[in-house]
Amino acid sequence: MKIGLALGGGGVRALVHIPVLETLDDLGIKPCIIAGTSMGAVIGALYASGMSGREIRERISRHLILKDDTWRDIMAKKNHLLKWVTALSAEFPRGGFIQTQGFLEYLFSEIRIRTFEELEVPLLVIAADYWTAEEIVFEKGDLIPALQATMAVPGVFAPASIEGRVLVDGGVVNLVPYDHLLERADFTIAVDVSKVRNHGKGEIPGALESVLRAFNIMQASAIAEKMKHCKPDIYVQPQIQDVRMLDFGKAEEIFLQAAPAIDLLRKRLKTVTYRTGGLRKTAIKRTPCP
To answer: Are 41 and 151 in contact (CB under 8 A)?
Structure first.
């Protein structure tokens, strides 16, 4: 039984993918292929390298100040926090505010995996060609440049240049790339972290917030249209409230708000495995995405 897992983009909200992975680990479900966009691709790459969901949570937590951290905890994390800040250096390059190469090099430094071929699980990484508006799918060759391209949110992170192409965030063309898995897997699970609710206060947003929110609206509209034509077997869409794309200080809040969706995922997976004696190919008739 081949299981495909698609992890969508959404900035810090992509941390929701971690409890999803932990749930799969708990149930003994191992994807045979993963597709990811933006931060979903980054977390997917860590998982595809052989890390468990729990190990990814622990690695990410070392670089965040959590609500229950004491001063002793913060001091113990000091070196990791400094490396994190240094890696995400604000160099204000042409086309973006932040260079991501150092961040990705540091994040993957302990894993020592540099190519798609070295991953334990096949991985598809989605990016967009800035000039032609084409969807670009990476699945072989150097890993870090592909991840740098997929998370290059326009106006925030610098675009990536690969083989003469200028590439930006894959969410521009395919936020949750489950469509690439429908022909490669028997059962597909897709996780969409783009649905966010903000309490409207009638305030005029700043320039960066305007760009990011407009980007989010565009992505939500595109995926809603895609869902009309083809759907994964399980679609996970937690509703995260009042957490912006770059609110890295709200990790615990994200996990808390995502808990109902994670509980529902666990119940659905248990129901499927109970009824079939394991995840087997469903009777759902799939229509190829246009």
So the answer is: yes
- The two three-digit tokens of residue 6, written as one number: 């698609």
Q: Does residue 23 come out as left (phi exceeding 0), alpha (psi in the -120 to 50 range) or beta?
A: alpha
H helical segments located in 127-206: 143-150
> Counting beta carbons within 10 angstroms of the beta carbon of residue 290, is it exposed (0 to 12), middle (13 to 18) or buried (19 or more)?
exposed
- Whether the CB-CB separation of 32 and 4 falls below 8 Å is answered with yes
Contacts of 226 (CB under 8 A, 6+ apart): 179, 289
pTM of the model: 0.82
Report the C-alpha gap between 72 and 48 in whole angstroms: 33
Q: How far apart are CA 116 and CA 41, in angstroms?
A: 12
Q: Are 155 and 192 in contact (CB under 8 A)?
A: no
Chain segment 236-290, per-residue pLDDT in tens: 999 888 887 767 677 788 889 999 999 999 999 988 765 555 665 443 444 556 6
In tens, the pLDDT along 27-78 reads 999 999 999 999 999 999 999 999 999 999 888 777 555 555 554 544 444 4
Nearest CA to 234 out of 12, 90, 27 is that of: 27
Residue 45 backbone zone (phi > 0: left; psi -120 to 50: alpha; other: beta): alpha
Q: Tokens 């150092």 — which residue? A: 102
CB 196 within 8 A of CB 237: no
CA-closest candidate to residue 161, choices 101, 85, 107, 87: 101
3 state SS of 163? coil
φ, ψ at 95 (rounded to 5°): 95, -5
